[in-house]
Specification:
The protein is of the alpha/beta class. It has 14 helices and 16 strands. It has two domains: 249 residues, Aldehyde Dehydrogenase, Chain A, domain 1; 142 residues, Aldehyde Dehydrogenase, Chain A, domain 2. Helix 1 crosses helix 8.
Length: 425
């Protein structure tokens, strides 16, 4: 039997310890499940989520109403809002993860030493993963599915904006997972919005093996400053699209519009447009955005393109708007674009639109971001679009995992050494 957290525990610190111990116990059981057993349990979880759609959407309506009353921006409310189509997308993403190849036990490499020993590196679960996130209830399902599939237990701490949605989604998922033989404590939701619980998670070394923050700059900064547990950071998306002078105008206009306006509140949205000074139709890039109500802020040369473009401040180039606002700069060729991106990019996603393959190759090689794109919208920065089923987040650091983090990014490895009696001289 897997231990369950003590319901009498009240302090955030003791609560996290109780949840952590239960999660670690559950993780040992989860790690023994076969690929087929985990696939079956996740499919049951997706089915349970579909059955619970009325309850989930009612809970989400409460969260959206509270967000509107509290004055959250339309973009943030859009991140929070669920409807039947989005909920079906969440359930389908769980099923996509269920049928992905199981990374646990996969052989990374193998070698035979001169003394006859055979060494292998194989993938194993990380252990107990803590996810601290804000406003996006789909993270509850994505994180649960990815962690279960990769053999990890997970402790979820969602933001207060989505508290009712998260609880309803979590309840449905656990119902399905338990029916499939997954221990209940393998997927736990912290049952309090007390901020002290976040601090307790960040200092739970020995219980929680990795923390993944999903949220705004202030949340990530707090996690990185206070954590005594390894952190896989999902930082802000200050994403650029550079339209080179050899870009096809129709393609460039379509990509720019989609990168900014498809969904302004997601981390893959473009926040800065860089226009080559010799691009033949700069007005064709900005006019459709202005016509749809997007606020543009630009440097002096950008403002000369259209008088409706306001003056940009120094802060604009380093701001993730997550709203219908865009910074625009005119640059003198590829080198100037690369220099601007190096100064201001958050190393999340940056894109170039050009018909010149040599220019594109140099951009792809020299831009030091987790995702670098040629002739496509930055809004493709998404684990599902990368064929990963879903994602825990998009890691912008340089260690362990980078870009959309899915199953492989939730594993580590161990060495298996097989001998025939060798002793070291």
């Amino acid at each position: 039997m897997t231990d369950q957290p003590d319901p009498a525990v009240t302090s955030p610190q003791d609560l996290v310890v109780s949840l952590g111990r239960a999660g670690r116990d559950a993780g040992r059981v989860l790690a023994r499940l076969t690929q087929a057993e985990k696939e079956h349990a996740l499919k049951l979880a997706a089915a349970a989520l579909r059955r619970a759609a009325p309850q989930v959407l009612a809970a989400n309506a409460r969260d959206v109403a509270a967000a509107e009353a509290n004055g959250l921006t339309p973009a943030l409310i859009d991140r929070l809002r669920l409807d039947e189509k989005r909920l079906e997308g969440i359930a389908a993403a769980i099923e996509d993860v269920a049928v992905l190849a199981d990374p646990v036990g996969a052989l990374i490499d193998e070698q035979a030493r001169p003394n006859g020993m055979v060494l292998q590196r194989v993938r194993i679960p990380i252990g107990l993963i803590g996810i601290i996130y804000e406003s996006r209830p789909n993270v509850t399902a994505d994180a649960a599915a990815l962690c279960v599939r990769s053999g990890n237990a997970v402790l979820l701490r969602g933001g207060s904006e989505a508290v009712h949605s998260n609880r309803a989604i979590h309840a449905a998922l656990v119902e399905g997972l338990v029916a499939g033989g997954v221990p209940q404590a393998a997927v736990q939701l912290v049952p309090t919005q007390d901020r002290a619980a976040v601090g307790a998670m960040l200092t739970a070394a020995g219980l929680i093996d990795m923390i993944v923050p999903r949220g705004g700059k202030s949340l990530v900064a707090r996690v990185q400053a206070e954590a005594r547990v390894p952190v896989l950071a999902h930082l802000d998306g200050i994403n650029h699209t550079y339209v080179h002078h050899d870009a096809d105008p129709a393609m460039a206009s379509a990509i720019v519009r989609n990168a900014k306006l498809r969904r302004t509140g997601i981390c893959g949205a473009m926040e800065t447009l860089l226009v080559d000074a010799t691009y033949p139709d700069p007005h064709g890039l900005v006019a459709p955005l202005l016509a749809e109500g997007c606020e543009l802020r630009g440097d002096a040369r950008a403002r000369a393109i259209d008088p409706r473009i306001a003056a940009a401040s120094d802060e604009d180039w380093d701001t993730e708007y997550l709203d219908s606002i865009l910074s625009v700069a005119v640059v003198d060729g590829l080198d100037d674009a690369l220099a601007h991106i190096a100064r201001h990019s958050s190393a999340h996603t940056d894109a170039i639109v050009t018909s010149d393959q040599a220019v594109a190759d140099r951009f792809l090689a020299e831009v030091d971001s987790a995702i670098v794109i040629h002739n496509a919208s930055s809004q493709f920065a998404d684990g599902g679009e990368f064929g990963l089923g879903a994602e825990i987040g998009i890691a912008t650091g340089r260690l362990h995992a980078r870009g959309p983090v899915a199953l492989e990014g939730l594993t580590t490895y161990k060495w298996l050494v097989r001998g025939t009696g060798q002793i070291r001289p």
